[in-house]
From TrEMBL:
PANTHER family: PROLINE SYNTHETASE CO-TRANSCRIBED BACTERIAL HOMOLOG PROTEIN (PTHR10146), PYRIDOXAL PHOSPHATE HOMEOSTASIS PROTEIN (PTHR10146:SF14). GO terms for molecular function: pyridoxal phosphate binding. It holds the Pfam family Ala_racemase_N. Residues 2-109 form the Alanine racemase N-terminal domain. Keywords: Pyridoxal phosphate. InterPro entries: Ala_racemase_N (IPR001608), PLP-binding_barrel (IPR029066), PyrdxlP_homeostasis (IPR011078). This is Pyridoxal phosphate homeostasis protein. It comes from bioreactor metagenome.
C-alpha cells in the first residue's frame, strides 16, 4: 500500500504540478477505487507571491482540508496538510499546516551541477 498526499495546485501556477481545485473530487473518486493507494492528506507548493496572497492560498487549503476531513471515504484520510517551505513556513503553520518543507533552511540552496 502506497501512502500518498494529493498535490493541489491552489495557485493555478502553470509551472507547478498538482490537481486543480475543480478536478480534485474526480481524483479522490478515482483514488477510492485504487486498492494499492491510501491518500493521507493534501499538499501544495505555491507560486512566488506576496505574504497576503500566500496567507490566502494557505487558508483556502486549510478550508479544503477541513471540508474533506468531515467526509467518509474508504481509503482517503485527511491526516496531513503539507504546505509551506523555508520562505513561508511560518505563515503555513499559522494557517494550519502540520507538515512543512524547510530543506533549504537546513541544507542551504540546491546546487544544480550539470553532469
Amino acid at each position: 500500500m502506497a501512502n500518498v498526499l494529493i498535490q493541489v495546485n491552489i495557485g493555478r501556477d502553470e509551472n507547478k504540478s498538482g490537481v486543480l481545485l475543480e478536478n480534485l473530487e474526480e481524483l479522490i473518486d478515482a483514488c477510492e477505487k485504487c486498492s494499492s493507494v491510501k491518500v493521507k492528506g493534501l499538499m501544495t507548493i505555491l507560486p512566488k507571491v506576496d505574504d497576503e496572497l500566500t496567507r490566502k492560498y494557505f487558508a483556502e487549503m486549510k478550508n479544503l482540508y477541513d471540508c474533506l476531513s468531515k467526509k467518509r471515504y474508504n481509503n482517503v484520510l485527511m491526516e496531513y496538510l503539507s504546505m509551506g517551505m523555508t520562505s513561508d513556513y511560518k505563515i503555513a503553520v499559522l494557517e494550519g499546516a502540520n507538515v512543512i518543507r524547510v530543506g533549504e533552511g537546513i541544507f542551504g540552496k540546491r546546487s544544480y551541477n550539470n553532469f
